[in-house]
Write a structure and sequence with these properties.
alpha+beta, 3-methyladenine DNA Glycosylase, Chain A, 9-stranded antiparallel sheet, globular, DNA-binding
Length: about 200
DNA sequence: TTATGGATCTTCT
DNA sequence: GAAGATCCATAAA
């Protein structure tokens, strides 16, 4: 059993920095979600950056009802609905007024694996959270968590002491987009079997 | 093993 | 009306 519950949430201030600078800090951290008395958690092993007027970002053309959370201070949760049936979870980064976020694409399941299996309807561990919409389903992340602060008791990011070396981080172009493909803003842990494949 | 279509919300044209 | 920061079941090869 892990000892994540002994580690306090990272404060919102932690996320109010340059987005790309945060990337190596976020990789390896633990996303914790408490629901109905159960604790679900997973180590963040894959993220993508969406910054400013980057053409691939939802915020590329200014603020809308959906993306307005991206303009808030770092440390908030941005959850959006896409393709008619899927939720994706982002960590808002940087300062208020500048739209930036890190899309969490994959987790390595730690606690509450049995609950995740139930939510996902599969027994295959590597298929629980290896995709942005999958991890939301596994952790029951939905619209209600859009815009919440990530230091509340039921939903936060924690540091359990796991160390990620610079050499363990690999980068590539982002996935599932048609513009902004010149930027290598997808980051993942080298060789981790929970990274979404493509 | 790779390809295709369905699900059907939100935004922009 | 069309496309999208997706996933999965099913079909073809």
């Amino acid at each position: 059993m892990s000892k994540i519950k002994n580690y306090p949430p990272l404060p919102p201030k932690f996320f109010q920095r340059d987005t790309l600078e945060l990337v190596p800090e976020i990789l390896g951290k633990v996303l914790v979600r408490k629901i109905r008395g159960k604790m679900l958690s997973g180590r963040i092993v894959e993220i993508e950056a969406y910054i400013g007027n980057d053409p691939a970002s939802h915020a590329a053309n200014g603020m809308t009802e959906r993306n307005k959370v991206m303009f808030e201070d770092g440390g908030l949760s941005y959850v959006y609905f896409t393709y008619g049936m899927h939720f994706c979870f982002n960590i808002v980064t940087g300062k208020k007024g500048f739209p930036a976020a890190l899309l969490v694409r994959a987790l390595e399941p730690l606690d509450g694996i049995e609950v995740m299996k139930k939510f996902r309807g599969t027994d295959v561990i590597t298929n629980l959270t290896n995709g942005p919409a999958k991890l939301c389903q596994a952790m029951k992340i939905d619209r209600k968590l859009n815009g919440v602060k990530l230091d509340c008791k039921n939903f936060f990011i924690a540091d359990d002491g796991f160390v990620v070396g610079k050499k363990d981080i690999e980068c590539s172009t982002r996935i599932g987009i048609k513009v902004g493909t010149d930027k290598e803003w997808r980051f993942f842990l080298r060789g981790n079997e929970f990274v979404s494949k493509r």
